[in-house]
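Purpose: get a first structural picture of the assembly so the mutagenesis plan has something to point at.
Setup: two entries, given in the order below. No constraints added.
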Amino acid sequence: MKPSLPKGTRDFSPDEMLRRAHIFDTIRTVYQRYGFLPIETPAMENLSTLEGKYGEEGDKLLFRVLNSGPVLDQVKAAGSATGMEMLTEKGLRYDLTVPFARYVVMHQHELTFPFRRYQIQPVWRADRPQKGRYREFYQCDADVIGSDSLLNEVDLINIIHDVFDALELGVKILLNNRKVLSGIAGVLGEQERIIDITVAIDKLDKIGLDKVNEELKGKGVSETAITRLRPLMELKGSNGDKLETLRGFLAASETGRKGIEELEQILSYLPNERQVEIDITLARGLNYYTGAIIEVKVNDDRSAFTSSICGGGRYDDLTGIFGLKGVSGVGISFGADRIYDVLEEIKGFPDFSTVSTRVLFANFGEAEARYCLGLLQRLRNNGINAELYPDAAKMKKQLAYADARKIPYVALVGTEEMKNGQVTLKDMQKGEQSTITFEELLHVLK
Amino acid sequence: MKPSLPKGTRDFSPDEMLRRAHIFDTIRTVYQRYGFLPIETPAMENLSTLEGKYGEEGDKLLFRVLNSGPVLDQVKAAGSATGMEMLTEKGLRYDLTVPFARYVVMHQHELTFPFRRYQIQPVWRADRPQKGRYREFYQCDADVIGSDSLLNEVDLINIIHDVFDALELGVKILLNNRKVLSGIAGVLGEQERIIDITVAIDKLDKIGLDKVNEELKGKGVSETAITRLRPLMELKGSNGDKLETLRGFLAASETGRKGIEELEQILSYLPNERQVEIDITLARGLNYYTGAIIEVKVNDDRSAFTSSICGGGRYDDLTGIFGLKGVSGVGISFGADRIYDVLEEIKGFPDFSTVSTRVLFANFGEAEARYCLGLLQRLRNNGINAELYPDAAKMKKQLAYADARKIPYVALVGTEEMKNGQVTLKDMQKGEQSTITFEELLHVLK
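Result (structure tokens, whole complex):
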């Protein structure tokens, strides 16, 4: 019986774990720099919390957990559609946003608003697995809830800059505003088709203008509106140019003007070297954004990727679904798996040899091992990751182990070294070795 | 509709998260000191991996995940016991040991043996929830696989010492050996009742000698054997005394003598200040241990707890269930939830004010906020966690926010400070404030 994994799930081996920790730790550190605090929610949520929050398609992609107890009896009793509730009333977390909204409502009396939280946890989706798409993957979210101030958007954009600066990856940050999109739909006389229009516009990058227009037509958007929309879809130039065109187009729309004002305000808070690019084709499929919409794409000579690796925006009433009305929020989410793939592609991961073992003590037998244990404890007390090969195996085997584990140094302590209080240290990369004191050893390894 | 959580599951709020991170980070750092490398496995495993590994009781406590797709149709089709496989073929991880064994077998050709891995992840059990027992909880395991050397046991015991030294919690480390238990059963002529005897002995602490003897009798252990066992159950004194009594009792048992030798060997490798206590009543319910059995109990004047907070042992054929024979392993697991409760009880958590926000900049309006953004960026570039209150709210509200968030300093930057390039810093604990330069601010906050 050969063991296997459920499709769409993965093991992470030590090398991958260290690289992933590099990404998560970077994001976590930056979140904390901006005053965001960590929370965690359980993997299982009640289905009443999850269902109906992700659209019909999302409901189908929820992983449902069987009620515990005498399951077989339940299965028999559940031989009809009405039996479903007896069979399953819990599901696995589908994203971090809905559990966060549930958390805020349940803990509203303990929280200090504005509440800035971050959350780095796996989510599960019964999507068809394919390259780069998994059934279990991590999300890394930060949200501010309970403040309308655009300074929150500014913080989040600065966070994005800090994270990718720290990861040394070139990116392009795109900014839009749902009010601008609403204004456009209003001016076109297609207010009730705002969702159709934004969904179609969102695809411009992927399917091109003709296909987008076709889709708009199919949705019943008028020819006149499609023609008027065209110059906006092809909007080019600096942010200043774009804003000027928008100001003209949206002059008659109060909502549209408010959206422009918000864009201008955010841009004005950002220093020159941390600017973002206005992109009115950005809609991010999700319909719950009400203000800023943010998306980050790879923009690095070393990478062929142009995909989205981070996104977010403002939503005005996320907790309303759980009975807490009028609480505004804004948040972002980093796509750790995609960032991983890009950093792998550009060989952007640092050297982790200080994280894993720095030195392996060879094992020459019981007396030597006993002596080495004392040295090891002193090294470890000095914060150095060190190990003793557990068996008095052939030296070739022990060195092969150090090699496979990429341990940079092997310490050889035999009778002679024990007598002189010294250590023979072999540099595995250079192949050189020298006999030194413990203090010198400490110095080399630090 | 009031949202709720599935029973036995928990949210972790920021204060709890920081405390939990203190425990996890301590364990992680020590594991790495000893050359253990991290892995992660997916939350869902195939039921074929999980079932039959935890006994009949364990199978009942597995959380099963419904197959995705048209679930209702499956439910109808599954109106008989044979339909179960159509309904569910995945379950949530019940512990970290079986997924690790599965991992080793699947990745055996990429791994370097002896393989030292650690793993810190949640597990799920459909246990009846009660105080201190949850349906989702974290395990923190370390195992060495592919080496028979007792130096591995020594490393694990040193790890336990290091972790509780770092957490500043007094503990008692108990050590036993399955071979000693086997030897005892053999000498008593009850070899085939070794499991019954160890399970009963394991309860000595909880139910007392009389109840244990009753249980042994119930299992069919002879009166003679129970009488002969008595002095061993009441074994007292130093490790030396205990070993001497055991040497006498087990003189005729080869297995027993081997067990004594292993105990002696491990003790001899440990320095005086890091000793363990031999406890032959220790069996840890689990039947798969074949050599050393380790358990850690709280032993601290400040705590009323005496419960087990860490345990482990050697198992000889863990991967055999997945087709890889003859690979010996030894491991330990820290009970993070119990350690949390003990540290909470003794007020053993450090001050986390350096981890969360160090300084809040008050918001006096747009111009001041704009000015403060520059200062904030400089602080953050210096590794200081800092935030700006996002709205120009009343000062009382802003100070109340800092207070509730336990932010130690509030920076007040108005027209005067902007003109002079200074910051008025309010120490929230002392209530004092002084006007200082940015360099002085940096110095105070660092």
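Chain B has a mean pLDDT of 92.
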